[in-house]
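Sequence of Methyltransferase-like protein 27 isoform X2 (Lingula anatina).
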Amino acid sequence: MAKIEEKMLPIYVELNRPGITTEEVEDVYARWAKDYDKDMADLNYFVSSNNAYVVEKALKHKNDALILDAACGTGLVGVELTKRGFHNLHGLDRSTAMLEQAKQKGIYKKMMCSSLGPNRLGIPDDTYDAVVMSGAVGSGHVDGSCLEEFIRIGGYVVMDTTLKFFHRVSYQGKSWDEIIDNHIMAGRWVTVTRRLVEQSFNSLDGIQYAFRVK
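Predicted 3D structure, token representation.
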């Protein structure tokens, strides 16, 4: 695949500054929400469709499946899921501005404003057939502390990371992949796919993950 140059929109550079805090991230998204979809198209954001495809394969076209779009942002993954016939979608994000943009799309039956982390979500065990999360791992965003909750509430877990950003995150001294592997070794989930995706976002390579909760 021919290499293309990473685009550098000013707000994108601001968001992905190493060491950015959670509060600073929320401020960026509040300012970016209205232009986010347009800018993501300019940045060649393919991970939404990639993850929706993996969900479709995992659920074997079970279109009435209940799916949580975690860190749903403006709903780009939800749009891709609806294109594949899924209509029973919930969206969760900590940014009220991004959720407002997602609400306008009319694709989620339920929307929740909450952070993802070690905190217990107000969701019963085994609620979802699948949990999907796209483009959320990075400084000031999401780290591996959220994975235990995904296992508690979901049947399949489909996620992606961008290699440039996920190396910056850790939780209690453990990297993203170390936490994933700890859950595998503890028998909490099994790997469905774990693969490199070239130029998955803005010319940057990423990793796509799918796990089946045991």
